[in-house]
Write a structure and sequence with these properties.
Elements: H1 25-31, H2 53-79, H3 84-100, H4 107-136, H5 138-143
């Protein structure tokens, strides 16, 4: 009887075609440009002038710490990928996305990008585990 280990993070349900990274639907979903919809879940951003300067500084510090932590975790997660091509792709994409968004000042956009990075981290970790298990499966090796 197989025992299951407790899961620390809640991973989204994703599928993976695993034939190749470039055509993988999970990879496409992972790196697709996501647009934020305004609605009940995402109210319009509030004015930053309503906040106390000390509170803004604290939020900026917390966001910086979160961003750096996610950045490091994504780069470490890339190392778990089973092939060098996949590892390099995740690293390159992570670096370019973080550089692209480093000048953001809108608090709601920063929060959105942090949530997106956290989702991407979950996806990288799930794919790394799934693909590593698949590549180590003797039956999969027979197909190549």
């Amino acid at each position: 009887m197989a025992t299951t280990l407790p899961v620390k993070r809640s991973y989204p349900a994703i599928g993976c075609c695993c034939s190749s990274w470039s055509s993988c639907s999970s990879a496409a979903a992972f790196f697709s440009s996501t647009t934020k919809q305004q609605g009940e879940d995402n109210p319009p951003p509030s004015s930053t002038s309503d906040l106390d300067p000390q509170q803004l500084s604290s939020n900026n510090n917390n966001n910086r710490i979160k961003a750096l932590s996610l950045y490091r975790q994504l780069l470490r997660g890339a190392e778990r990928m089973p092939t060098p091509n996949r590892q390099n792709y995740i690293k390159r994409k992570t670096r370019s996305e973080f550089r692209k968004h480093k000048a953001l000042v809108d608090p709601s956009e920063i929060e959105f990008q942090l949530r997106l990075a956290d989702t991407n981290l979950d996806t990288v970790l799930v794919q790394a585990e799934h693909l590593s298990r698949l590549f180590n499966d003797p039956e999969y090796q027979n197909y190549n």
